[in-house]
Specification:
By secondary structure, this protein is an alpha+beta fold. It is built from 10 helices and 14 strands.
Amino acid sequence: MGRDDLKALLHYLSTNRSALWALQSGDREVFNEEVREGARRCNVKLRDNAEPVRLIGTWATNASCPEVLKSALAEYRRHRQQARRQRMTFLTRTRLYISPGLQIRKRSTIRIVAVKTTKSSYPPYGTIIADTREIYNKWYPHFIHGKQADSRLKRLPLQILDVNRLQMDIEPSESVVIKDENGHLLGFVLRNFCPDERLLQWATQVANMQIPVRRNIRKEDTGKLVLMGYSAGSRSKTAFDWVRNITRKMTDEQKVTSDMAGSVLFAVAWQLMKSQVPQEVIDDFNDFVKSLAIRRMDKGADATSWEGDNGGRDRGEGKVKVSILGVQEGKGRLGVAVGEEEFEFDNVELAPPSGVLGQNYSRWGYTSRTPPAQMGGIVDDAQDSEC
């Protein structure tokens, strides 16, 4: 590449309105395409592993570089620095990123409670519990005489809670880690899991778009619970594949984009969990995924973006936009748009392979036989959708 060729390329870019506009507005992708086109016209060979905008930034230090291009590059750098600050502010505000030191300090402030192992559990397994007599009287006809979703299932007894038999009662605003006498983690409750209202609105919008169009996996319980991600299939025909539970008529493209929206929602939730949930829970999830060598929640990675409108039923703009790009080895480039802010994050670890979205859901006391071993509660008080 000769000096005249380089000078010609810089001149081409300085007179190209699209290239200058892309620089001044901080649009890296458009400018890179203009550089590639200019390099082809001016017979300039670009290094395969170098980003065009970085090369131009280096070459622009040449005294022969037109001032208009230098000025546009300076504006581009200003945009990039501002975007980095906004990105870090967003990560900090939403707790998608918490420094390791702050994670330790935050976890140390959560109260740890040790409970004793008893011969019998309370509330008893397989029993529906009502907090008060009024609630008991209201729900008794439904649970004892109401129509069952599956008549083959045994009706469960209904009892009024005896608070004197509880070892502890967690306050509505309290976060607690629960362990046994030997220090083994039994469960936890985290309040105000995500402090950012706009991110909560976004998550609620995505959940409210998914829950109505997917099959309920717990028809015998109150509320609705839907599965997202991969499934082992039915008991009669096991197969590890993406769950097929959409009940409304959709095109293949609509199904993919809907699945991707769920993948992004759980990817964001997974980042929040990694920064706040007890470390042994995160390790338990990761060990389980690695032991079976199964995929993480990556459906829709071949689609670049998805935008939906929930009809303005929720607070906020009513718009949701997500994307997963370039998934490899359980990590991907994640795009999230919350309100007027749009961010992309590279090399993000995606969520474990499956999860559930619930709305107004409750269930009787039971023992889970599926990993991970610990049980947890994450409460944000964001309307009535949970994930």
